UniProtKB/TrEMBL annotation, chains A, B:
Subunit structure, interactors included: Heterotetramer of two alpha and two beta chains.
E.C. designation(s): 2.3.1.35, 2.3.1.1
Function text: Catalyzes two activities which are involved in the cyclic version of arginine biosynthesis: the synthesis of N-acetylglutamate from glutamate and acetyl-CoA as the acetyl donor, and of ornithine by transacetylation between N(2)-acetylornithine and glutamate.
Subcellular localization, as worded in the UniProt entry: Cytoplasm
Family: Belongs to the ArgJ family.
Protein name from the UniProt record: Arginine biosynthesis bifunctional protein ArgJ
Signal peptide positions (record): none
Binding site for substrate: 160, 186, 197, 284, 407, 412
Native source species: Ancylobacter novellus (strain ATCC 8093 / DSM 506 / JCM 20403 / CCM 1077 / IAM 12100 / NBRC 12443 / NCIMB 10456)
Primary subcellular site in the record, as a coarse category: cytoplasm
Length: 412, 412
């Protein structure tokens, strides 16, 4: 790791107790993908009957593992997951495809399943061929050590420059049977010369058919992972997978709209939102978590675009880093979003303090009060367009010199 | 000014000798818009018969002066230009409109012209009402000092945190009559709590009717100012105006496609490109100028979008700051642009060194050679998509800790 950064000041105070999830076992190993003597591979085994859903990067140049997962997702069943660090297997062309195929073959043999039931995710250096022959023997040995606990182990194994492991969990009942949801994520991390990559894996012992699971995940991701931005840069490797083992004994459900899933749906959304917020809290160099609330837009879609324009604005993010309630830059970011907006109807608040109203500075606001508010770790920025009922919320972090140092200094 | 930064290391070695342009006179004054004892207003007078064209910010929340200029542009004739610093007159609602009207009224009286012949541009703090009564007497006095030289004065007067004045000029003949083009620009500047603003004013003594002038400017801006990005943040005040006084005695031309304008068109494009490059060279905290060339795209429009995605990527820009030929991040930025791209056809070069080819690392490139190249002040980054004939070029600068300091530190 290029930087041994201190733990983010925005890290949760405690790591939650997570798992076990019936039907999920795992173990980590050293395969020597890039460095010797370092844990660099996570093997997860899933019980027979596990269904799977996935959401991936929208990049037009996705990594080989992303292409592999997309291809096999139509089958809808999963028995294994292999996650490695040290090599992203991205921009590796034909060799990349050969590496994914060989990894799946070795893992399938170790787990006793089909190759198209093995999901893959990689993070690390890009453009270098991944030598999957290094998994030979290693995964077989690892499979013998598979265990249902402790979940902190895989959460740590997938970290790169994350400064804390990211875990979230919830328990709900489906027709009286308790089911568990547990997930882990890694955020924007860096191994020279790598790129930021978001990976998240969520597991449940509920029994939900793959199409319903996909519907739940696709909906759940909108207001969680898709509502988080660190720097507007989309990785070639972003991967979010949801596995349902069915091992809880809860009744099998095949329709995402089944009313028996109401609580599960809320709990899943909660776990995804929790993990996504942890990713924002661990943004590179982040010192402040910024929650951007847009209301009064002409639609939710328009509110999302305006919120993202604000969240990705370097001028807004550096102002927050400087503890400056610079609403002029917020106006700028609203204006450049290209969405319906009328200056004379715009209101802007930092926390409870309205600083601008109806297209002009709010004469009643107290500069000392808003300056004191900006010293908080978590900043709520609210923009009301005054046009309609469209509302949305996204999360980001501030842009600090440390971000530039992490991403620009490591070769100097 | 919050920061007295040293002159950008990318500044041109010499300031060009510019002007006079027949029919253009100017003077600067202290109006006390925000601070006392400081030059803060530029008054320009244009001879009778001057035609005008303009291009403005696409922001949905433009400043009051931008709205004023847009409104009067249809008339097509100009006699004056008033530029002030200290107050951007943006996000000032009804009061902002009253201030522009009063400024035009006072300037029109001082210059002896109609109010709708007076163009306005403002830069400085936003959200504070601009007290235009401060111009009373001042503009009248200033009008008595109007002179055709020296052009360095107005170029300096419009600077905010620009570290050098930006001037460019060219001379061409139209039917044997020499005409001059001369322009000035200010770049991404900052007066706390202001925002970046690009202003540029270009003048010629050629005689060109307003519709033709507008066509020339709209075309010329595409590959100059619109091809430059510092941080992807669009100001509420961006203003580019082109005035043609006709005072050279060259024949009046009413059609932008008139073959007699061929040389003029090229010269104008050159002046705009020169000024735009100077803006990029003076980007906040910039240590390197980055020229991004995209070839082989499916269209020029697609090439532009891909180039802008690379130019606005914080991860690419921090890598350049760190003198790291991180082509993995370039792949990422190509991938996130959402435009047609195929990993297996992609080639990437830094300067003359091809680092990636056909979707994988170019095995022949020498890491030491590319590291040496990255130490240059000007970096040429070429991406070939291998799909079609669409090509484009944009310019940006690197993202340094100094950018964060300029925009984030001034309140601390």
């Amino acid at each position: 790791m290029a930087h041994a950064s201190p733990v983010s000041p925005l890290a949760p105070k405690t790591t939650p107790e997570v798992g076990p999830v019936a039907g999920v076992r795992f173990a980590t190993a050293e395969a020597g993908i890039r460095y010797k003597g370092r844990t660099d591979v996570l093997l997860l085994a899933l019980d027979k009957g596990t269904s799977v859903a996935g959401v991936f990067t929208k990049s037009k140049c996705p990594s080989a593992p992303v292409e592999w997962c997309r291809d096999i997702l139509a089958k809808g069943s999963a028995r294994g997951l292999v996650v490695n660090s040290g090599n992203a297997n991205a921009f590796t062309g034909r060799k990349g495809r050969e590496a994914t195929a060989l990894t799946a073959k070795i893992a399938a043999k170790a787990l006793g399943c089909r190759e198209d039931e093995v999901y893959l995710a990689s993070t690390g250096v890009i453009g270098e061929p991944l030598d999957a022959t290094k998994y030979e023997g290693v995964l077989e040995e690892t499979a013998k050590r598979l265990a249902p606990l402790p979940w902190i182990d895989p959460a740590k194994a997938i970290m790169t420059t994350d400064t804390f492991p990211k875990l979230a969990t919830a328990k709900v009942k489906i027709e009286g049977v308790e089911v568990t949801i547990a997930g882990m994520a890694k955020g924007a991390g860096m191994i020279a010369p790598d790129m930021a990559t978001m990976l998240s894996f969520v597991f449940t012992d509920a029994a939900i058919d793959a199409p319903a699971l996909q519907a739940l995940l696709s909906k759940g991701v909108t207001d969680s992972f898709n509502a988080v931005t660190i720097d507007g840069d989309t990785s070639t490797s972003d991967t979010l997978l949801l596995f349902a083992t069915g091992a809880s004994g809860a009744p099998r459900i095949s329709d995402a709209k089944d009313p028996r899933l109401a609580r599960f749906r809320r709990a899943l959304t909660g776990v995804l939102a929790d993990l996504a917020e942890q990713v924002a809290r661990d943004g590179e160099g982040a010192r402040k978590l910024v929650r951007i609330h847009v209301t009064g837009a002409t639609s939710k879609r328009s509110a999302r675009r305006i919120a993202m324009s604000i969240a990705n604005s370097p001028l807004v993010k550096t102002a927050v880093a400087g503890e400056d309630a610079n609403w002029g830059r917020v106006v700028m970011a609203v204006g450049k979003a290209g969405e319906p907006a009328e200056r004379d109807r715009l209101s802007i608040s930092f926390g409870p303090i309205r600083v601008a109203h109806e297209g002009t500075r709010d004469p009643s606001y107290d500069e000392a009060e808003v300056s004191a508010y900006m010293k908080n770790d978590v900043i709520d920025l609210t923009v009301d367009l005054g046009l309609g009922r469209g509302a949305d919320r996204v999360m980001t972090c501030d842009l600090t010199k440390e971000y530039v140092a992490i991403n620009g200094d490591y070769r100097s």
